[in-house]
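In this section we walk through a basic example: taking a raw amino acid sequence and producing a predicted 3D structure, encoded as discrete structure tokens. The instruction is simple. Fold the sequence below.
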Amino acid sequence: MLSVPVFNMKGKRVGEVEVDPVALGGKVRPSLIKQAMVSYLAHQRQGSARTKGKAQVEGSTRKLYRQKGTGNARMGQIRTPLRKGGGRAFAKRVPPATRAFPKKMRRVARDHALLAKIQANEVMIVDDLRCAEPKTKVFASMLSALGVERGCVVAMHERDVNTYKSGRNIPRTDIRLVDDLNAYDVLRRPRVIFTKPAFARMLSRNAADGSRSA
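The resulting token sequence is shown next.
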């Protein structure tokens, strides 16, 4: 069994939650995590970069002058990349199709990434994370008390406007709903912080998914 420490907003440890590694896949599969990361980043590309090659620019394909006897260097059509107004050599094309990655594989990759974080003691739970009003100072003081200074992702169990507004301006800090977490979000920041209901929700959904697949 693995244990995840539970803290309050003042940084004091108030307990821990036991986690069965089987609930998160049992073992870490780096190849699947890499596949999830590559797929996610591929889908983030806008894919709008275009430049015209020799076939796209205007101009005749006729050879400008005969090969020999003119005293000039050999030259083909006017659309060659060697001439002004010609097409670009090695022009940028439409990127390849995005990589398909099924929903079930995405969930498994997220669980394995989270398991790796728990094994590295980089996951913590905050008991009763709540901001009465949107105050960045309150959220920043909580992160400082927890020793989280190099960046983190905070997983919430429900939308909380005050908490979101309190943490959105802090550098290297991401606030996500636990249902929207993916492997990239988990691994992007050094630490992962769950609210207690969010962590319980994630484990219960994994247990339900496991029972359905069984």
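Looking at the output, two observations stand out. Residues 41 and 184 are 9 Å apart (CA to CA). The helical segments are 30-44, 103-119, 136-146, 161-167, 183-188, 196-213. In the next section we compare this with other chains.
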